[in-house]
Specification:
Length: 546
Amino acid sequence: MRLLMPVIDAHRRPRGPYSMGAALLRHLVPAAPPELVAAHDIEIRAAAPDLAGRVPARRVTLDAALPDEERILVPAPRRTLRLANGIAEFVRDAVRPGAALAVCNGAHADPTDTELLDVMTRRVPPGTLTIMIYADGPEPPADERTPDELWPLVDRCMRDGFLPAAVELGQLGLARTEPGEALWWPFAQRTATALGGLGRIREARALWHRVRAASQDPVMHAAAAYGTAMLDARHPDPARRDLGRARRWINEAIAISGLLPDPLERAFKLGFDRNGLALIELRHGRLEAALSLVESAVELAGELGERHPLHRMVLLTNRAQLLAALGRAKEALEDYAAAVAIDPAFPDTYLERGNLLFGLGRTEEALADYERAMRAGPPLPEAYYNRAELRTVRGDVEGALADLGTVIELDPSCLDAYINRAGLLAASERDEEARADVTAGLARAPGNPHLLTVLGQLETAAGRFEEAGAALDLAVEHAPELAAAWGNRGVLRHATGDGEGAVADLTRAIELDRQPDLYANRAVALRALGRTAEAEADDRRAARSS
């Protein structure tokens, strides 16, 4: 075993995100095949910006060319998982087998490096690269960076979605500036936004309050009101959303933005805030009101000329979502097409349009959009998951299983991928593989009714009726609206001689979801009870539904 390179210091100070990842890429990229580098341009440039001269940008989204005030999208925290998977694939293919990588100060690494090391350990075979991580190492010198030195790092972190580092460095910048100084507001705005994105709601709210206490600038107050409103409107736990409070804050933002003297700034800010109010209306279930607000924002965006194209793209996408929810699919597809025309490299639009097309039964077009989303950037688990659902509907079980395997490899926390793959494997009578997925899924989510349903199906097939009954009873208890749980328990009861119980469970399953196999199974149970006419009626229903 040979050491790939000298020991890498992963301490996040002073380089910040991807301190380890960038060092590794700086070592590997110069000798890597150009086509391999080109295939991972986004990941390499994000983790190691200093390699930009060696790695031409092949896939470029619109925001890369926009001025700071027009870059309005904050990447989701999960973007770093996509980057980590892409880097891991690059490393796997760039390293000659039999190498070893030594990393020190692992306990002090930025979350980007911690995640990358975890993904590399899982996805790069140990025979290719042995990874040795040491918790401690040399202590870096005290951090004495000035606000001017910190600001480009904070800006980069927000642009690329490195939110924990944006918070840490932004708070350092705030501590080294005074309210009213040139950089204090940008530090405050970026830090509060990053805190909100990480779900650190209380800290974000406190920082927006600090902005209000420190400034009399109407633009800052409008932004603070909008940011505070979104903490409630976007709270990940629906039970903790205070939509009334969110409405009060967003109304304040709209009132201030409507008074801004510059017509272009007023049109942009007012449209931005109305789009925020549309989200609150959507959370209330008032789709028409939300659509009206987004349409007014689109009209305001028309006053901006060629400026703020990303803002227009977001508004068109939001309007498309609302139109689709209201059943106006043709108009929704027109808006999605317009959004794609603004930024053809943005993967999320393809993913959303693909979902709409899939729902309309236009599977070839949906497939094309899912695959465009896959090509647009680093590995995207959601695109593979959605393609797996499409392939399942089309009867391509092996293709669906392959896609679900990719999802699990990219994101082992994706419970739905285990559920769907276990179900497909069980239906294909690959019971041991299905059981492995059920076991892995239940380890992550004990008591999950979908997994318990598959477990009950497997135990029934294996003749372990007591275990099957326990699993299916729990599934019905936890999810009384889950037709598959009732249907499988009906099959179990028939197998154990409880004909009346089987008919009752299958009847409840049919009430919830009129699937052909449920009618067919109930016909079997009815016939065993001598209720031939009812059984024949169910056979006819099964034939008509299939």
